[in-house]
Amino acid sequence: MAKAKTTFFCQNCGSQFSKWQGQCTACKAWNTIVEELVQKPEKNDWKAASASTEKKRVSKPLRVSDIDTSKEVRFNTEDAEFNRVLGGGLVPGSLTLLGGEPGIGKSTLLLQIALKLPFKTLYVSGEESQKQIKMRAERIQPTTDNCYILTETKTQNIFRQIEALEPDIVVVDSIQTLHSDYIESSSGSISQIKECTTELIKFAKETATPVILIGHITKDGHIAGPKILEHMVDTVLQFEGDRNHVFRILRAHKNRFGSTNELGIYEMQGAGLREVTNPSEILISKKDGELSGNAVAATLEGMRPLMIEVQALVSTAVYGTPQRSATGFNAKRLNMILAVLEKRAGFRLGAKDVFLNITGGITVDDPAIDLAVVAAILSSNEDEALPNTYCFAAEVGLSGEIRPVQRVEQRILEAEKLGFSTIFVSKYNKISLKNTTIKIQLISKVEDLVGALV
Ligand code: TYD
Ligand code: MG
């Protein structure tokens, strides 16, 4: 018997080496190189494709203008949030990778979508038994007769079932559990993940069937397996959120068929995930009484305006070094804003603990939230509540200047729709809105905000 061929792979970045070494020369990680068995397959194919079909599929060069895209119909997944993040539905023959922390709801999301789909769907699970999946499906309710469950991990067997069933869409939970006979190393290893993904890509492209893969993530938040996995697939989606909160956010990190700015919001309920179509109304608590330290920011996630509540607590520091902590907001940015307030608005925050929280357990990167953070901190520091009909949308610069934000008019209209009476924006934003009932307060410096609020 011929000697089995082995290669060394870095488990962190997927680089390949001919011999073992302590440090990966590509990504500089230590102790990540592992020997894996590789065996060149005789026929690296998703099925032993007959020669005749092979011939028909030989592709020829075409002029861009001659390529026909009119027939390119996307699969509508019946889930408005999922469609939005994908850029308008699943593209035939595309490979989508969905990553996320354990227990965040990846299996729930995809099973729920599979159950709602009006197409014949095959849900392949290497993680749970058919009974377990059925129990989950019963919790989620709306069940079509088009969803087939297969519990299998060997790709060759999966393809055999696919050939028999001819599904329109295939979901695989998860890529790390798959195993191909052509490679001898264990499931979840770099070479297995690479091989199984290659087989699935080949299958997807040849049959124009969209495939959705679930991927585990490592403890630092990356999708487990080689980095090239993300290069191989067409779309990389990330399902995130705080497990102790009910909101889950679906983002696209890479999308060959659409924008990566779009965002899907779900709420985890007893009976599966519910699409949140009116996020602004849910994320701001309509309180009766006004509380100090609360301010509402008019942010924008993708194309969607999102009103978010910011809570700040400023208290006298008990220990020598004041504590600063931020949930859902960049802690470095909080420190910067505090320094600006100290320098430009004369607030002596140096001896105060400052805690900041974005409600709903979501993380916001939109710089337009800055002004609401400033307002919340000032309000808590003075122990004076802001009117709950005020909202804010502007970035704060290092010199205390209030900077304009993109698409301010869309934010103003959303605030007006939700019944806010006043919105604070930068003086430098160009606003050509007419007939608005909301008062647009233009400010240019942090000092102006202090003046306007007292
Ligand atoms: P799951 O989809 O198994 O997560 P993942 O596949 O990302 O590991 O989701 C697990 C969590 O979701 C679990 O803790 C229970 C919760 N859950 C609900 O709250 N409601 C439901 O209807 C379902 C099915 C799950
Ligand atoms: Mg799962």
TrEMBL record:
A motif (RadA KNRFG motif) lies at residues 254-258. Keywords: ATP-binding, DNA damage, DNA repair, DNA-binding, Hydrolase, Metal-binding, Nucleotide-binding, Stress response, Zinc, Zinc-finger. ATP binds at G100, E101, P102, G103, I104, G105, K106, S107. One of its GO terms (biological process) is recombinational repair. InterPro entries: AAA+_ATPase (IPR003593), DNA_repair_RadA (IPR004504), P-loop_NTPase (IPR027417), RecA_ATP-bd (IPR020588), Ribosomal_Su5_D2-typ_SF (IPR020568), Ribsml_uS5_D2-typ_fold_subgr (IPR014721), Rubredoxin_2 (IPR041166). GO terms for molecular function: ATP binding; ATP-dependent DNA damage sensor activity; damaged DNA binding; hydrolase activity; zinc ion binding. The keyword Zinc-finger applies. Residues 353-454 are annotated as: Lon-protease-like. Residues 71-217 form the RecA family profile domain. One of its GO terms (cellular component) is cytosol. SMART domains: AAA. The middle region has homology to RecA with ATPase motifs including the RadA KNRFG motif, while the C-terminus is homologous to Lon protease. DNA-dependent ATPase involved in processing of recombination intermediates, plays a role in repairing DNA breaks. Stimulates the branch migration of RecA-mediated strand transfer reactions, allowing the 3' invading strand to extend heteroduplex DNA faster. Binds ssDNA in the presence of ADP but not other nucleotides, has ATPase activity that is stimulated by ssDNA and various branched DNA structures, but inhibited by SSB. Does not have RecA's homology-searching function. Belongs to the RecA family. RadA subfamily. PANTHER family: DNA REPAIR PROTEIN RADA, DNA REPAIR PROTEIN RADA-LIKE PROTEIN. This is DNA repair protein RadA. It comes from Mangrovimonas yunxiaonensis.
